[in-house]
Structures are given as C-alpha cells and as structure tokens.
Amino acid sequence: MTFSVTRRTAIAAVAGSVAAPALGQQARDRFVFGTNWLPDVERGGFYHAEAAGIFRKYGLDVTIQAGGPQLNNPQLLVAGRLDGVMISSSIEALNYAHSDVPLVTVAAIYQKSPQILVAHAASGVKSLEDLRGKPILISGLARNGYWRWLKAKYGYTDDQIRPYTFNLGPFVANPQAIQQGFITYEPNQVRQAGIEPVVFLFADHGFNDFGGIITMRRETLETRRDVAQRFVQAVSEGWRDFLFGDPAPGLALIKSVNDRLTDEIIANSLKVIKERELIHGGEGRRGIGFMTAERWAAIYETMASSEIVPRGDYWRRAFDTSLLGTGLALPPA
Questions:
Q1: Separation between Cα atoms, residue 83 and residue 32, nearest integer Å
Q2: Which stretch of DSSP H or E encloses residue 29?
Q3: I need a surface site. Which of 2, 138, 147, 175 has the fewest CB within 10 A?
Q4: Is the pLDDT of residue 58 over 90?
Q5: What mean pLDDT comes out for the span 62-88?
Q6: What is the DSSP string of 88-110?
Q7: Nearest of 175, 42, 37 to residue 118 by alpha carbon
Q8: 8-41: per-residue pLDDT in tens?
Q9: CB 304, CB 310: distance < 8 Å
Q10: In whole angstroms, how far apart are CA 198 and each of 120, 160, 162, 280, 304?
C-alpha cells in the first residue's frame, strides 16, 4: 500500500481536531519528499509540518510519500521523481558518496540512532559482551551495517546470525531469544506481551550514527537552494512543535493514513524519543536537524574502523552543512 500525503489530505485529517490555516492564493514551491517507512511517530515531525500548516508558512506545497518494504525512495530520488528523502543511517549516505551517487545529506533529525538489540531480562544477560556467541535475529541489511561494528568491538561472529522476519512471535516464544529493534517500539511491544526486556541502545555503547537523515540530489541543492533551505527549516520547526508543542495536528494526519497505530503505541514512542533525547540531544540543542563536519568525521571513523565502509576522502562528499547556519528550530532549554 502506498501512503501519500498532500495539503488536501492534511486539511481533511485535522478538521475537527485543530483548525487548519486558510489556504492562500500565492504560488508555493512544490516539493515531494519520501520517508523511509509508514506514517508513524518516528517520522511525525514531517507530517506535523504539513498538518499544522508549517510548510505553507514557508511557501512550500509539499507531498509526503511514505516508504515501506516495497518502496525504494532513494532510487526514486536519484531518478528525479522525488525532491528529497529520509534515510535511516549515515552508512547509506557514506555509501552513496563512495559510489559517486549524486546525493547529499543536508540535515540529520535524529542525533542518536534508535537501533537496539533486545533480550529477555530473565535470560540473565546484562551487557553486549554477554551476547557473544549467542544466536541473534537480525535482518539481511544489518549484516553489512551495525553487525560489523558488533563484530569489531565485541567479537561477535557470523554463525550467531539468525534471520529476522520483522515478527516478534519467535522472540516472545523463546526466552533465550535476542533480536534487533528500535528503542521507540520493540521494548514496549515486548512488555505488552508480558515479558520484561533488557535493551542495549547502540548509541549508548559507542555506535556513532545519525538517523532520520534528510538527503537530496546535489542538483536540487545547487538549482533550488532557497526551496531546499525553506524545507529544512520547516521540517525543523515541525519536529520542534510535534515534540514540545501540541502534536494533535500531526497525529491526526498520521492516524488518518495509518490506522494500525494505537494511542498506546503513539504515547510510548513520543515518550521514548523525548526521554532518550534522540532528536534534541547533543548537537540537536543547536537546532533540530543540526550537524557538523566534525561529527561526520567521527561517524566516518566509527564506520571505517569497523569495515562498514572503506577508507578514503570520499566521506566529505556525503554531507553539506551550508543550509544549517540559521533558521533551525531550537528545542526547549
């Protein structure tokens, strides 16, 4: 199923929950943006910027195209069918640069990656070191990503890998199971199943990575720079208001196109994002979406030293911080 959100969809969704700003007659710049998964809280600031009229305030007419298992939005970006995308990890951006794919990262919403491993507390494991030698369910994509970091830092081996099918059933059924997940979702789902989890957030153990990364074609940055900057600023404001203001417009829009989300799931995700400071911590205090060349250098070193990406000067082409000097929304002090 394809989820696509336009201004008309947003107005219909928020009617009755919050008054949407009246439509003006002035021309607005079109921008089509692809996320990396279905509409949910973890992508909520993008939808809130649409639903609350923030994109319109910045003179933008934005369509949000959700990602999903059957969609490759970065491929559509390269083909010119999208103007920007959200990617999950700096690893993707570094690989694009290494392969001379003409994409560039312009902002990073998540200052910490939400990636985790989760185990049963009753199993007795208390550290990532304790997982060495034990079977772990991970996706195929993870093999060439964070798994290499776990191998380099903790001595994990490939014979520990078991296929992860994005289904919690096998984890719930096996008290010794360990699997991948996101801090905002899987631990809460495990608790709902009556199991107390033990959670290892990679960011707390030295895995240096961004998440929720805004990436565009270099051509867009060069020929539509003003539009690109207004988009980044609007998204920054959307995320600030979604997390620290009234999220009702964004949530109404998200729930209108993804009825699988419950209020309990929504409340938990919001709580974890804020408590863990995934977005507004670190350099995010200088503005939501902020990033520096120094942070990118540190990320590159993490990935290269773990043989996730090759060494070379190409990493400097993965990002451009020139849109981030002014105009980003500041989180509460």
A1: 5
A2: strand 29-34
A3: 2
A4: yes
A5: 95
A6: S-HHHHHHHHHTT-SEEEEEEEE
A7: 175
A8: 555 455 444 443 444 445 799 999 999 999 999 9
A9: yes
A10: 6, 19, 19, 24, 29
Q: Distance of CA 262 to CAs 81, 216, 266, 267, Å?
A: 32, 32, 6, 9
Cα–Cα distance for residue pair 183/200, rounded to 1 Å: 9
Q: Average of pLDDT values for 278-293?
A: 98
User: What global pTM score does this model have?
Assistant: 0.93
pLDDT confidence of residue 3: 60
Question: Could you read off the pLDDT of 161-180 as tens digits, one per residue?
Answer: 999 999 999 999 999 999 99
Spatial separation of the C-alpha atoms in residues 320 and 105, rounded to whole Å:
6
Of the candidates 107, 34, 124, the one whose C-alpha atom is nearest the C-alpha of residue 75 is: 34
Q: Which token pair is 208?
A: 């240096």
Integer Cα distance of 146 and 115 in angstroms: 9
- Please return the burial class of 161, using the count of CB atoms within 10 Å of its CB with bins 0-12, 13-18 and 19+: middle
Q: 3-state class of 214 per DSSP? A: strand
CB burial of 199-237 (b: ≥16 within 10 Å; e: otherwise) equals ebbbbeeebbbbbbbbbbbeebbeebeebbbbbbbbbbb
Single-letter amino acid, residue 294: E
CA distance 60 to 31: 7
Q: Is the separation of the CB atoms in 35 and 66 below 8 Å?
A: yes
What domains can be seen in the chain, in order of their start residue? 4-111+209-318 (3.40.190.10), 115-205 (3.40.190.10)
Task: Give the chain's length.
Answer: 333
